[in-house]
Design brief:
Layout lengths: L14 H21 L2 E6 L3 H9 L3 E4 L6 H14 L4 E5 L6 H9 L2 E4 L5 H20 L4 E4 L14 H7 L6 H8 L1 E8 L5 H13 L7 H13 L4 E6 L4 H10 L8 H18 L8 H13 L7 H27 L1
Parallel strand pairs: 1-7, 2-5, 2-6, 3-4, 3-5
Antiparallel strand pairs: 6-7
Helix pairs in contact: 8-13
Amino acid sequence: MNKFKKIQAYRLGPLLPIIDLLFIFPVLLYLKHKSTKSIELHYLGDRKQIEQDIKKGAFFMTNHRDICMDSAWLTYLLFLRYGIHPYIGIGNNLFGKWWIQHVVRTLRAFVVIRNGNFRDQVSNAKLLSEYIHYLRKRRKSIWLAQREGRAKDGNDVTQPGVLKMLTIDSGNFFESIKQLNICPVCISYEYDPCDYLKAREMQLKRDKPGWKKSRKDDLVSMQVGINGKKGRMVYRMTPSINHDIDQALAENPELLKLSKNEQIQFVCNLIDQHIHAAYEIYERGEKFDQYIEGQIAKINLSNKDEDYLREKLYEMYDNQVKNYEKVQLAELD
């Protein structure tokens, strides 16, 4: 009996590259010309070291900008440069129609089950963790976002729950994390086409405590994220965090005596530092101010608070710069 049957990606072997080349990549090329100025793959640090890390099979963990396209563009870039098609984790909350699950699992996606009671969630987390470690033992590369949902305010922070899931049954946390070979990747948009939708969500949550997005809201975000203008997009790869963990343990063996929650937070901070240091910082000026005003004009709310919306839109972009500068200052100390 196959215990991974309800979540695993379908096995297509040599058919997958053919599907990519004949169907998926032509669509991505069309979207690339329609919605971006460019999509670039860059590196932070020693490129040879990074490429050595990913040769072992890598767990690519990224910040979360777009519901659909984060993993799609990364797969496109990795396939063109290295012939890699990573396995992709996708939440079942995005399966609006019964057939969507089968389509994405055909494209090497596995299912992250997010519904159910507490007992179900624990059981599903154990199954998912076991499946991911099963893939990594077979030296397969994987993509997963650093958090469950997109960072609405642009403050990209790794959720401890993600690392807790990945090591749910581990006896030695650091060894379990190192087996994954996490290589953080930073995604930078010059313009986030969903920024005005995120600002709208923030006002709705402020004005109506308990407000939650509908499935229709998710579909609109997916559509805007796919087709909306993004300017320059940069994916920047960073080395495996295994190097940082080994160095930290060599310098401070007391880390092994920390509680698991403290060890998890330590690794979350490492991933965040990689991603924050790898941001592409874009020039901003009068043209950007005009862009913000244009995004505010798109927001449809009966009690539209333009000052609040403007503040939140700027915050989405400013937080990335603040996090980048914080890492640069820490390196100077």
